[in-house]
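Regression test attached.
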Amino acid sequence: MTILTDFRYTSCLSTLIFIFALVNFSCGLPADSLHVMAASSLTEAFEEIAEEFETVHDIKVSLTIAGSASIASQLEDGAKVDVVALADEETMQRVIESRELSQQAPKIFATNYLVLATPLGNPSNIEDLEDLEGSITAICSEQVPCGKLSFQLALQKQIELRPSSFEPNVRSVRAKIELGEVDAGLIYVTDVNEQVNYIRIEEAEEIKSNYPIASFDGARVEASDFIDFVLSPTGQKILEKYGFGGPVDY
Amino acid sequence: MSQRTPWSTFIEIATEESVLRSITLSLIVATSAAAICFLFGLPLGWVLAKSQMKGLKILRAVVLLPMVLPPVAGGTALLFALGRKGFIGEKLDSWFGVTLPFTTAGAIIAATFVSLPFFVLAIETAATQLDPQFEESSQSLGASPTRTFFTTSLPMTRSAIFAGIALSWARALGEFGATITFAGDNPERTRTLPLQLFVALETSPERAMVLGMLMVLISLSVLITLRGKWIGTQ
């Protein structure tokens, strides 16, 4: 028998190759990278920020995107992270209560507000918040920042929100709108894309969500560099490009 | 999970209005789904087992597809077919004014979609394994094929039928991905226990524990009752 047809030899070899591959590819999160967790509304903005940061600082950024509430839950369960950027201060407060933050307090790096969104062509002729009553609508679940903001807005405008569905994050709301399954929904102005039609709500720009960013005790040294980068003119320009407002000067 | 459940607050959380509503919804959805599985799955399973016609392999693959499909993919497929803008759903909306997403009916459809394969498989297996001599003797004694079916064949697969019902009921009870994607999360009409649990997981782990334990208790009690009554050894 030749070497290649000898079963014992090939099975031994394939096992070795398998183990070799496993060892080399099993490190999903390389030990020497900066772990950043960001809220889903920050997806594209932070992907670009991470890319820019990597070229300037010569360190890999490992970005995880999830709903703010989901991020907070994971952190409560002890997930390892260097930097966290969330969509509202209330959720950051939850995180602060469960983990030790680094010396610096969370900093507000961006703001956002809600707009009314409808499928392209606005088939149900939605014009303002009042039109939501009696339509099929989707908003974020009240557990997540955009949901809380939606209820805040409704309270301000004295409208009762009775949505057909509470979605787990703002991108799910947008998806339902894109698919035409709902007549309208409330999403962030930064989530508006070419598949939805959006309508500005009067005074909604004043009911803003403040986006905090923070780092933790024991995080990598580059964590504060990342936060500084997000707050720098370069970082701020990227955020502005995606529709975010700048931080309010305290 | 039993160890971590805060038993003192268990009753408090379990009797909350929203939780009771979810329990009711879950029971309605799971039972309706199991009933539909029975109505459609019985003939379907039997045909797959006994029929000789061509194209059966394809039919079987289509029926069993939801079993291997990730539930969210199943829900998305349902949306594309039966959603308001789906190719069938659009007709439903324009002809009858009926939309399925965000309704309890939609939740039932999503649950049926994922649990039907289990029932069909149980029936098909049992029907294939039937000893033909009983049907043959029944017919040789003068019974028509129809009478044979209802008096001989069907009763012989009784335990498989009940097992199939229990299996599809349990699967329907636990369905999450297809429900939230197709039927959405509507607290009055579609927020079944798994959806309630998902929401609780992100805000109150304690509440999530209670809901999880609740699901285990409900499932266990139904399955134990069924097993005791119907699924005995032949």
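Expected vs. actual: identical. The first helix of chain A runs from residue 7 to 25.
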